[in-house]
Write a structure and sequence with these properties.
heterodimer, A: 7% helix, globular, B: 154 residues, alpha/beta, D-Maltodextrin-Binding Protein, domain 2, four-stranded mixed β-sheet, two-stranded antiparallel ribbon, 6 helices, 47% helix, elongated
Chain lengths: 359, 154
């Protein structure tokens, strides 16, 4: 059971389930001006690791399964989105947002994904939409030993300005981010009294050379104050910034991002400031609509003695990965992935096999 | 009997060419963006067409546009994807899924039956679709908003 579940009381859990049962039955139904969609993203993953240190916190074999339930309604200029993740660790409300669309701009309120770089705003928890099995470690979710605030509870304003065939887009969010308690703990809208979260704000600006086409280049900056409850820390002040790109020209796709991350760790004994650089690039090659080869490199500089990264010993500082995806039948995929990974105290190999789908 | 068969041959060839050209004229194909003839819309840009068929809310002349995908003809759908969306069918499906998953909204409905599509097109305010020119010519209650592609100027 994940730590988040321990934070939720039974009434909140029941309310979550009621909201989503209602969504499941009503979202796909169009009634007058109200219309909606319901997606289910099931997945089953087998993970096999080799060369682990004896003291490693990781398991040699690991099995994960779950289903991501997504529902959305639209009424005139208003939208509601909900994403509820059921996994072997239990249920988790990932997104619940209300949006107001004005021309090419949308104002959102609720718990959403932080508009940090590209990956975190494109795929969410629908792993079927990701070509690979794993996410880059730098954008792993908080509960998967992620080190950045991937969720924000609050406001998000996003949109695009047209200029000829080009689009200039923006996202700006402000709200509450995570707290640190051995892992980063996000804010939960139905149990807001739990936790001790503080401010997070992010600005993401991008260019689409062809408006609404997949290719996009952008930059982002995030500032987060992370209250800490362990390791003798009081608070972490974090600034992350970087550039990213998603380039697509059949049969190739490249997704890349670089991060410069500065942390100030404050405790009763004083403060320590550290910074490191991290980047990843993923290449995908479609042999056909059915077969896709992919590979990814992830690397960090300045991570060896970084005090903030020392709080996350399972964080993968370096990875070289390759794999293949087979779209077996309509909206069903099988993926294989091999990787070599380095954490602060482990270097190990990993083989992953996943089935995922979308219904 | 014709004493000068050599003079007739060029005439026959010219007549054949005129006939073949006439055949080509009658089989000319154009892909059109269309709406109901009652609609206040008079034209639609390629960018706006891409936008609405990617599921992005679009209002033009105070009318909220409703995209209807015509999947009655494989070639028609392929030309539409190439000329408007700039993606393969699989990429387009992924893009629609990804966009709805990220921003909400609804994917455009697909119609394999052209009669059903025309019926919805005529009865849904703001609805837009795409068809071959000869399909539009058969229905006076439809109007063209733009020629997307023509086999005479491709």
């Amino acid at each position: 059971m994940s730590l988040k579940i321990l934070h939720m009381n039974d009434k909140a859990n029941l309310l979550y389930e009621l909201i989503f049962l209602v969504s499941i039955f009503f979202a796909p139904v169009s009634r007058g001006e109200v219309s909606g969609e319901l997606f289910l993203f099931p997945k089953v993953t087998a993970i096999f690791r080799s060369d682990l240190e004896n003291a490693s916190a990781l398991e040699n074999d690991d099995y994960k399964y779950g289903v991501d339930i997504f529902a959305t309604y639209e009424y005139r200029d208003f939208r509601v989105l909900g994403e509820y993740l059921l996994t072997e660790d239990g249920p988790d409300l990932e997104r619940i947002i209300l949006g107001w669309v004005v021309s090419d701009h949308t104002f959102w309120i609720g718990r959403n994904h932080t508009p940090i770089e590209y990956w975190n705003t494109q795929f969410h928890h629908g792993s079927y939409l990701e070509t690979s099995i794993s996410r880059p470690a730098i954008v792993d979710y908080e509960h998967d030993v992620g080190i950045l605030p991937m969720h924000t509870g609050g406001l998000l304003l996003e949109g695009v300005f047209k200029r000829g065939e080009q689009g200039f887009g923006y996202s700006w969010s402000i709200g509450v981010g995570p707290e640190y308690e051995e892992i980063l703990e996000e804010w939960h809208p139905l149990s807001p009294e739990t936790g001790n979260q503080d401010i997070t704000t992010t600005l993401n600006l991008y260019l689409e050379p062809v408006l609404y086409a997949p290719t996009r280049y952008g930059l982002f900056v995030n500032y987060t104050e992370i209250p800490a409850k362990s390791r003798g820390l009081d608070e972490i002040k974090q600034i992350s910034s970087g550039i990213y790109g998603n380039w697509k020209s059949q049969p190739w796709r490249l997704i890349g991002s670089s991060f410069f991350i500065h942390n100030r760790l404050e405790s009763s004994n004083g403060a320590r400031e550290d910074e490191f650089f991290s980047a990843y690039i993923q290449a995908e090659y479609s042999i056909s609509d059915k077969w896709i080869l992919f590979g990814r490199l992830e690397a960090s500089i300045g991570d060896e003695d970084d005090a903030y990264l020392a709080l996350f010993p399972e964080f993968i500082n370096e990875r070289i990965m390759g794999g293949i995806r087979v779209n077996i039948i309509h909206h069903n995929a099988l993926k294989l992935e091999f990787s070599r990974n380095r954490t602060s105290d482990d270097v190990y190999g990993q083989f992953m096999l996943q089935w995922d789908a979308m219904f | 009997m014709n004493k000068h068969p050599g003079k007739i041959i060029p005439i026959v060839i010219c007549l054949c060419l005129i006939f073949v050209d006439g055949m080509a004229q009658t089989t000319q194909h154009s892909l059109l963006l269309v709406c109901s003839a009652d609609s206040s819309l008079s034209s639609l840009s390629i960018t706006d067409a891409r936008k609405i068929f990617l599921g992005i809310p679009t209002v033009l002349d105070d009318v909220r546009l409703v995209p209807l995908l015509n999947t009655s003809d494989t070639l028609l759908a392929e030309v539409f994807l190439q000329k408007i969306i700039f993606m393969s069918r699989r990429d387009y499906e992924q893009q629609l899924l990804s966009r709805v998953f990220r921003l909400g909204g609804k994917r455009p409905p697909e119609y394999e039956n052209i009669s059903e599509l025309i019926d919805v097109l005529l009865n849904t305010p703001g609805s837009i679709s795409f068809m071959w020119s000869d399909q539009v010519a058969d229905h006076k209650d439809l109007k063209s908003l733009r020629v997307v592609w023509s086999n005479s100027n491709n």
